[in-house]
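Course assignment 3, question 2. Fill in each field.
Student: A.L.
Task: Predict the tertiary structure for the chain below.
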Amino acid sequence: MSGHGFLLATYSPGTSLIHRAPLGLKFLLVVGCGMASFLISDWAVSAVALALLCGLFLLSGAGPARLFRAVRPVLPVLLAIGVFQWWQLGAPTAARIVLNVLVCVVAASILTATTPVQALLDGVASLARPFRRFGADPERFALTIAIMLRSIPFVAEAYLNVRDSARARGLDRNPRALVLPVFITTVAFARQTGEALAARGLGEPEDPEDPED
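Answer field:
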């Protein structure tokens, strides 16, 4: 991997107060920020909330460079959204929308940067446990989340590597040079993942019914 940045910060071991905070409290922080993004109507309030969250992120022991790497992938999209909203609805509304998205990204980054992946998956399985009565399998649900967390960075990294390679050959404007290698790499990754799950007896029904004669 070439080290391109991805959305959200990866886990970094530490002993800060943020690291030691209960997982449920950090989940509530992310959910609360997501809900607040729909309720806050003043860009200044959004700016204050973002500043507080950035402070929490830095209190976890992560530096400003790590915070920037966490939000960098979404900045081009936010720039486009901000310009469009400024044109349509004015600067205050554009600022509020962009800042609210950043609030959600930083809140989620605090969770992922201070919580081991296994603890996150255990938390997801615990949250899904009440749905077992409806036929849900919390462990399989957590496994699905784990595969998603692993797959998204892999596919994004594959695209960035192919794009860099195509650019070096002067083919960065050729859709075939970009799409086909990423498609092949993604299919190969999916097959490898499926084979690994099958080798561990995962991904198949526990009690498959034999077809009746």
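Instructor remarks: The chain has nine helices and no strands. Residues 138-168 form the longest helix (31 residues).
Grade: pending
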